[in-house]
Amino acid sequence: MRNYTRVMPQIRISEAARFLGVSDDTVRRWTENGTLTAQKDPAGRLAVDGLELATLARDQSHLPDDPSRTGSSARNRFVGLVTGITADKVMAQVELQCGPFRVVSLMSSEAVTELGLELGSVATAVVKATTVIIETPQGKSII
Predict the structure, then answer these.
(1) How far apart are CA 1 and CA 7, in angstroms?
(2) So what's the pLDDT on residue 34?
(3) Cα-Cα-Cα-Cα dihedral of 115, 120, 123, 129, to 10°?
(4) Closest to 117 in 3D by CA, of 63, 104, 79, 109
(5) Angle, to 10 degrees, between the axis of helix 24-33 and the axis of helix 13-20?
(6) Beta bridge partners of 82
(7) In Å, how far are 25, 72, 78 from 68, measured between CA atoms?
(8) pTM for this model (two decimals)
(9) Count of C-beta atoms within a 10 Å radius of residue 90
């Protein structure tokens, strides 16, 4: 495994606010009270270190506890509210709003009935996949 050591990107205050789902003023207050360290980017604008921002985002992210308390090897569990159900005789599309994320699942219409899913009900999306695609804004890719 490689050890990646390089300069972390600097994220402008407005972008940091967007990533954290807060206002620019909140990020500025966090730089003033020491929650985040402010620095100038090459253009002289106020910015924060990308790694520091990522750490704060991880530490501040809280989804509700999984009500099922089921043991599972799947680590990607997203608790949310059912916001949409589109069903026919055989298949259904169920949409959950899990924090800031929209998760969509395709399942049998029978499963929707058996699970008692209805608009506004609490459910957990469990994602177990062997393939996860990660993209970057720079458009670079390695296959």
Answers:
(1) 19
(2) 93
(3) 100
(4) 109
(5) 100
(6) 96
(7) 38, 11, 12
(8) 0.58
(9) 8
Residue with tokens 């909140």: 26
Answer for the pair 56, 16: CB distance below 8 angstroms, yes or no: no
Buried b (16+ CB within 10 A) or exposed e, 12-37: bbebbbeebeeeeeebbebbeeeebe
Say if residues 80 and 97 touch (Cβ distance below 8 Å): yes
What distance, in Å, lies between the first and last C-alpha atoms of the chain? 17
Q: Decide if 76 contacts 124 (C-beta within 8 A).
A: no
Ramachandran bin of 142, using left for φ above 0, alpha for ψ from -120 to 50, beta for the remaining angles: beta
Distance between CA 89 and CA 87 in Å, rounded? 7
Res 28: pLDDT:
94
Residues in the chain predicted with pLDDT less than 70, given as ranges, are 1-8, 62-74, 138-143
Supply φ then ψ for residue 28, to 5 degrees: -60, -40
Residues 50-81 as b/e (b if ≥16 CB within 10 A, e otherwise) read: bebbeebeeeeeeeeeeeeeeeeeeeebbbbe
pLDDT of residue 63: 60
pLDDT value of position 55: 84
